[in-house]
């Protein structure tokens, strides 16, 4: 593994880890994002005054329908997370790394921009944005798992590390919630995530192969 290509491989490994940790599996932090959406009055029109309250009495509204709407969005996105593994895997096999990653960037950036410019009045767009975010994240993970092939006997360790990073990326929405509580708007956070598409594109063309990383790795293999 030692040689002139080692710095490139290490850069590919570390940036792939960051990509999985910071972007790929953010959906699973949904509960933290729901807090922000509720504060921003998303689907609040579904809330009804609690039964039995007098018109001049202040009480908690019944927001069961609002909670069900958020649950439906998460259910749909979670379904896409599992259902799309087959078609995204086929896309990766058939069209290879560059095409798969550009498709991932398209879905992911479209989703983050949609969320950034969504308001309570257009909350229904979350039904489109969250599944798209999930599809982009799955493609990021799939295209990064092959990086383990660059490191021979450490291949399985790297693959499991990336899977762990994918699951840990749920913390991203928690961070967005904490930033929101410090007066960093939801729009600002998601515009930042959208701007990161420049980094994803750069990584696609500079640190990833055009095709697939073979295993076992042939002598003098190069990419990027």
Task: Compile the SSE list and pairings.
Blueprint: H1 6-24, H2 30-39, E1 48-49, E2 61-62, H3 64-83, H4 85-116, H5 126-145, H6 155-168, H7 171-181, H8 186-195, H9 197-206
Antiparallel strand pairs: 1-2
Main location: membrane
Subcellular location: Membrane
Transmembrane segments: 12-37, 70-92, 99-117, 123-147, 159-180, 186-206
**Cα-atom Rg, whole angstroms?**
21 Å
Inertia-based shape: elongated
The tally of structural domains comes to 1
* Average residue pLDDT: 94
The percentage helix is: 55-70%
Write out the CATH superfamily name: MFS general substrate transporter like domains
Level-1 CATH class name: Mainly Alpha
Instruction: Write the element-wise H/E pattern from the N-terminal end onward.
Output: HHEEHHHHHHH
Query: Beta fraction of the residues?
Result: under 5%
Q: Per CATH, which architecture?
A: Up-down Bundle
CATH fold category name: Growth Hormone, Chain: A
Structural class of the secondary structure composition?
mainly alpha
Runs in which pLDDT lies below 50 for 5 or more consecutive residues are 52-57
Strand order of the largest sheet: 1-2
The total beta strand count reads 2
Number of helices: 9
Characterize the largest beta sheet: strand count, sense, and whether it forms a barrel. 2 strands, antiparallel
Explain how this protein is built.
With 224 residues, the chain is an all-alpha fold. It has a single domain (6-40, 64-206), classed as MFS general substrate transporter like domains (Growth Hormone, Chain: A, Up-down Bundle). It is 65% helix and 2% strand. The protein has 9 helices and 2 strands. Strands 1-2 form a two-stranded antiparallel sheet. Helix 4 (85-116) packs across helix 8 and helix 4 packs antiparallel against helix 9 (197-206). It is elongated and about 70 Å long. The two termini are 16 Å apart. Mean pLDDT is 94; it is low at 52-57.
């Amino acid at each position: 593994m030692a040689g002139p290509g080692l710095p490139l491989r290490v850069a590919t490994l570390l940036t792939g880890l960051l990509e999985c940790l910071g972007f790929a599996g953010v959906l699973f932090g949904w509960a933290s994002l729901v807090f922000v959406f509720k504060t921003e009055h998303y689907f609040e029109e579904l809330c009804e005054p609690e039964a039995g309250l007098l018109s001049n009495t202040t009480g908690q509204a019944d927001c069961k329908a609002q909670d069900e709407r958020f649950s439906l969005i998460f259910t749909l996105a979670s379904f896409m997370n599992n259902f799309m593994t087959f078609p995204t895997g086929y896309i990766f096999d058939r069209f290879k790394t560059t095409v798969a990653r550009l498709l991932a960037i398209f879905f992911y950036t479209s989703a983050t921009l949609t969320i950034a410019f969504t308001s309570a009045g257009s909350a229904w767009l979350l039904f489109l944005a969250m599944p798209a975010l999930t599809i982009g994240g799955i493609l990021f993970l799939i295209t990064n798992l092959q990086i383990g092939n660059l490191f021979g006997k450490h291949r399985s360790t790297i693959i499991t590390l990336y899977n762990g990073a994918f699951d840990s990326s749920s913390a991203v929405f928690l961070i967005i919630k904490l930033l929101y509580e410090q007066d960093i708007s939801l729009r600002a956070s998601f515009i930042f995530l959208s701007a990161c598409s420049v980094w994803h594109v750069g990584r696609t063309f500079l640190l990833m192969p055009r095709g697939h990383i073979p295993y076992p790795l042939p002598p003098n293999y190069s990419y990027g």
